[in-house]
Design goal:
alpha/beta, TIM Barrel, binds NADP nicotinamide-adenine-dinucleotide phosphate, Aldo/keto reductase, oxidoreductase, NADP_OxRdtase_dom
Length: 285
């Protein structure tokens, strides 16, 4: 079973969840979500842009886990920003998921009419169709623009975050504003150069765990939410089996020392602004 963190609006969010980015095969997505829920996960992370919301919803409904035990996240893509478009996109997402409500709705990227979309997201919270709202890929500067105009504060910023990229500028800002850091690429997208780090391997040997489990435990002890993606049932089960050991202060320090100066994924802001508001995600058939 996973531990959870208190969000600034009082909701609790599990610290380990299943990410389903690039899991576009309907049957695989549905069975992965069901396998995760069977293994004790209670957080599922999808997005309108992943084109798998219907399959996620089916996986949740077929799991037999009561809906109120599950924390379901989805994200608005910038082609749906602006007040009117965001309202319509939220309604369409609720219909595709078919799970009653969305626990956490994120703005996927900080480009386009962020303010208009935020207003539509706030109204969805007022209406009870969405329980909490947040952002993804926002820098401290992006949040600095949004926060003064937000009636409802963002509870989470989902960003690239793993031992090789520890967001040195953003994390202090998030802590100061009571925004939980949520890690995408929590395993560095599965890159061997991260999994094979000697500090990770040594902790894995000491605790009889895998490198992946050590990295996920590091996220938990740092106070992050992490959403590793897997479609392999054995990996899915292993990735939540990280609550029976604790990394020592020395092991945490050795992994903290692995931080590098650049993220793995980089896209210039001018390209994001030019491309993302045009790329409208297609719904599943
Ligand atoms: N907001 C954003 O802009 C954004 C961007 C990227 C990702 N995300 C979210 O973050 C989630 C995770 O990111 P990600 O999928 O790119 O990277 P990731 O979770 O860091 O890594 C996934 C890779 O690790 C492998 N893996 C998982 N568990 C493993 C295990 N126990 N042993 C060995 N290999 C394992 C997976 O392969 P197998 O499937 O074979 O296990 C996959 O190749 C996404 O699914 C999505 O929900 C958000």
């Amino acid at each position: 079973m996973t531990s959870s963190l208190a969000l600034s609006n009082g909701l609790r969010m599990p610290q380990i969840g299943l990410g389903v980015y690039l899991v576009t095969d309907v049957a695989v997505c549905e069975s992965s979500v069901k396998a995760a829920l069977d293994s004790g996960y209670r957080l599922i992370d999808t997005a309108m842009a992943y084109r798998n919301e219907r399959a996620v919803g089916r996986g949740i409904r077929s799991s037999g886990v009561p809906r109120d035990e599950i924390f379901l996240t989805t994200k608005l893509w910038p082609s749906d920003y602006g007040y009117e478009k965001a309202r319509a996109a939220i309604a369409a997402s609720l219909e595709r998921l078919d799970c009653g409500h969305i626990d956490l709705l994120l703005q996927h990227q900080p480009v386009g009419d962020v303010q208009g979309a935020w207003r539509a997201m706030e109204e969805a919270v007022d209406a009870g169709t969405v329980r909490a709202i947040g952002v993804s890929n926002f820098t401290a500067a992006d949040l600095g623009e949004l926060l003064p105009k937000a009636r409802i504060a963002p509870v989470v910023d989902q960003v690239e975050l793993h031992p090789h990229w520890q967001q040195p500028d953003l994390l202090p800002y998030l802590a100061a504003h009571d925004i939980v850091p949520e890690a995408w690429y929590p395993l560095g997208h599965g890159a061997r150069k991260l999994l094979d780090e000697p500090a990770v391997a040594s902790a894995a040997r000491a605790h009889g765990k895998s490198a992946v489990q050590v990295i996920l435990r590091w996220h938990v002890q740092r106070g992050f939410v992490a959403i590793p993606k897997s479609t392999d049932p054995a990996h899915i089960a292993a990735n939540i089996d990280v609550f029976d050991f604790e990394l020592t202060a020395g092991e945490m320090a050795d992994i903290n020392a692995l931080g590098k100066e650049r993220p793995m994924f980089r896209m210039p802001r001018r390209l994001m602004k030019a491309v993302m508001p045009l790329a409208r995600p297609r719904a599943l058939p």
